[in-house]
Amino acid sequence: MHKKIWLSMLILLGIFIWLPGVANARLSVSTPEETIERADLIVTATVINRNCEDEQRQVTIKVDEVLKGTCPDNIIKLTKQKDEEYGWGGFDFLEPGAKIFLLLGGNQTGGYWRYWPTGDLNFLALVADGHVRDLYQDSKIGINDQSWTQEDYTKAYDAFYQIHRRVTATEALDKMTKEQIAAMIQTQGKQDKDSYYIEGLSYNVADLDDDADWEIVAQIDGGVHLGKCFIFDKDARGDYKLITEQDWKVEQWDLAYPLEIDGKKVLKLVTRTGGTGVDVWIMHLFYLDQGSFIEAWQGTLQERSVFKSNWFQKICGYQVDLYSENKRLYVWETTIQYQLEPDGVTPKGEIKTDTTTKVYLFNGSTFIPEESEDKNNT
Ligand SMILES: [Ca+2]
Ligand SMILES: [Ca+2]
Prior knowledge:
This protein is an alpha+beta fold. The protein has 2 domains: 2-164, CATH 2.40.50; 171-377, no CATH class. The chain contains 6 helices and 23 strands. The chain has helices at 2-13, 32-38, 150-164, 169-174, 178-188, 370-377; strands spanning 16-19, 22-26, 41-52, 56-68, 75-81, 99-109, 112-117, 124-128, 131-135, 140-143, 146-148, 201-206, 215-221, 227-234, 240-246, 249-261, 264-275, 278-289, 292-307, 310-321, 328-340, 347-362, 367-369. The chain has an 8-stranded antiparallel β-sheet with strand order 16-17-18-19-20-21-22-23. Strands 3, 4, 5, 6, 7, 8 and 9 form a 7-stranded antiparallel β-sheet that branches. A 4-stranded antiparallel β-sheet has the order 2-1-10-11. Strand 14 and strand 15 form a beta hairpin. The longest helix is centred in the middle third of the chain and has 15 residues, at 150-164. It is elongated, with a radius of gyration of 30 Å. It binds calcium ion (2 copies).
């Protein structure tokens, strides 16, 4: 209530600012905290293009992070006509390539979103090294008896940024310890607490589901063919929850290049299994769906086995045709079989090879063999 009265006083009294060349100008400005509150949208962005003409300025930015509000557009254009009395105010953007912290107003009209700076001044600051650094084209603001300097704005904006920004993977990892991850596995895992081989634990963070949080991927190596893997996802309360525990010895998390399939971020994981004389590498395709782990497909990548004097080998390749209607997954499999000489290495007699191709279709959830799809349709 008190705040409301104060606000309306501001409007009545007007706001005096010190702007070069403009004495006691009346522009739309507010205190650092009020500017943050007034903004519909607060983002960090990269300046892509800047066009300054005599009477109009236009800047194009690419949104990097949304810190407040919802922003349906990745690319935003801001335009301002020159004001005869006040000139450009603070509408003077940086060179293309600059990283900025920007406070915006926005609304939807006629099916399109329109954006504009929050107020006439102090809506733009530079971002560097994970902090809001300097207010750009700053102006000292005086409202009644109080005044706010560039530092006041920068400090308030940086404080807001630190709370709402997405931390980098390195920063997220710095906040975790192996003991914490081990404790999470021991308390949430399906096995008995003391049966996990924690000495073999390693972990990393990755964005598996395109939300603002990092997911944790962890694995335990217990031997050539023995291991476990775990994925933790943050729940609505901000706590990490174990969403899958697999008896997989992970050889490779291939998380950097997801396949975009039906809006799902499908990732690759290679595991290894086997036993005496048998060594098998398996490819898994998986994704997270609303906090659930879904394995979309698994298949052999390589298999080698020696049984007495028989050598068996399987070599496979796969490729998803992302341009096909059902995101067809092609799998090529070549088998090689022969007898071994007594040295256990040299082939003896005929080498039998056979290559087959299998096709799978994505049914919206997993990859199923094409033949079963045909059966379903007839
Ligand atoms: Ca995520
Ligand atoms: Ca998540």
